[in-house]
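Entry: Inactive ubiquitin thioesterase OTULINL isoform X1
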Amino acid sequence: MAARRSPPQERERQRPRDSAAGNDQVHSWTLVTSQALDTAWRVGKGSVALAVSLLVGTLCHFRRLHLYLGHRLKRWIGYLQRRFKRNLSVEAEVDLLSYCAREWKGETPHAKLMRKAYEELFWRQHIKCVRQVRRDNYDALRSVLFQIFSQGLPFPSWMKEKDIAKLPEKLLFSQGCNWIQQYSFGPEKYTGSNVFGKLRKCVELLKAQWTEFSGIKDYHKRGSMCNILFSDAILEYKLYEALKFIMLYQVTEAYEQMKTAKAIPSLFRLLFTRETSSDPLSFMMNHLNSVGDTCGLEQIDMFVLGYSLEVKIKVFRLFRFNSRDFEVCYPEESLREWPEVSLLTENDCHYHIPVF
């Protein structure tokens, strides 16, 4: 009969088997855990990739939407700016030297001259800003009338003594100027017998507007009203035609006085010495009818305008810098202390308004 094994020996034999089973169990759990983690990682990785893709897609969509809306908004703002800028014939004040730097770049002799002229206005004349005026063949008239209204200047003395609305008929019936029927309203040509009615409406508008502006004491209110008036092209052109007619009336009055050997201002004698303006008719046909259409005011016309409105028109002619003609006044000799308006020009063709 075989002898029974002792318990210690049995335990020694059992221990390796238990250790092997434990290792198998640990390996099994490790494998399961690894597979679970791998599966979870793949699922998580896919979810993250999907989320990132969705986020990138969303961001790209919003970026395209932002660019689209920005483009549309930019176009809309540009449209509004062009529309209102086009309607505003006298723009807001801008810094004088900034305007000069923008307009006169480069190192050409003329550009250097213009920069020096603008610096002269800024430092010596104390002109800090400029108002740009629409470039057309009415800009001299526009520049002068804007300042008359914005400053609230009173009527000329001779206008207070006469009803200027009746001046068209007065020229026809009292002085026999039937040639006035050939008067042209800027781009419009011959208008025939209807010219008197149109001129009367223009002069009535000028009288009403001038009366209203001269009666306003508040500077800011006059400025706001000027912005409204000088954005209405139809009303503007009627006012400029009224100014042209008033110039014609003064030339006709001076001519009638000269024929009776009465003293007249020297500027009118100079006007009548020109072959193209030897009398009121030739002045109208050869010069005044073209104003607003194919040309603006010439220098002699500026004299007549200043005399007619009883204002001293001071003009800074920048292209004449460092010469005696850099600063000129129209008329040169005013009969009394007339108010002053100022213009600046780079070429004697187009004018802007300096702001002191």
